[in-house]
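INTERNAL AUDIT FORM
Audit reference: QA-55
Scope: verify that the stored structure record matches its stored sequence.
Auditor: D.O.
Record contents follow.
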Amino acid sequence: MEKILDLETVHQCNGCAGASTLHPLVGVMDLAQFPWDGNQVKFGFYTILLFKGSCRDYSYGRESCDYSNASMLFFKPGSVFSFKRGCKPKSGSLLAFHSDFLYKVALGRHIQDYTFFDYKQEESLHLSCREEAKVRCLLSEIQQELHHPIDVFTKTLVSRHIELLLDYCQRYYERQFITRSEAKQALVGQLEVLLWKYAKEGRLKNGTFPSVADCALKFGFSKAYFLDLLKFETGLDFYEYLQSRRMEMAKTLLLASENTPASVTENLGYPNVQYFSSLFKKLTGYSPMEYRQAELKVL
């Protein structure tokens, strides 16, 4: 039976890795020295893991298009994690920083912008050799600053180093989105299919649209990863994307002679014909019927 190792403080985490506590709220430690051995660990602080797998089937969501040099995982306070039994990492680093450390520093005001802290473990970041070297360099700089005697500059400088590390991780995740182009294209295509399914079933009539949670679950993503992937691919947030696709669906429906502006309004869940017609003209420059006539002439 797995045990849960409940680590509430950075000092406790340092103790598990056999490391000295240089700062009570921040620590960088050797991941390989941590007593994983099938234990689950509950982190009471922000935690970042950089590791190389110790067995061939240990990939944390790696796909054939991903780099295989090293992986990173990100955890918010209260997260529970464990390596697979027999898959203790041969090498790696663990960065821990407590929420209290973020008080009155710039990072504390926008830590929520780093959405990968809400990703599932299967949505880990996979690094190239060059990317891994950069991450290790940044961790080393944090460690060096922690070895300096604590003074009035410590909090600012360490938090800036952590922020820089997180910015690089954002860059690397965007690169991962690019190299996973098939997954992006599949997501957008499946979303469109899902919206048409809702329309055919009459669910849009009642204003019932797919929710973020439903879409993320359907496609096997965390909500945060789903939203980031959609934004990266389309440039739109979820609500904007739904409204954009609904208007494209309206254009398609208007080309069928049996459909009227009133029926399209009803089928797609717009409040009334006047609202739909006004919005349609604002976005296309045509009234619904003018659009139909113009498009049919082209066809």
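Auditor finding: record pair retrieved intact. The chain is about 50% helix and 10% strand.
Action required: none
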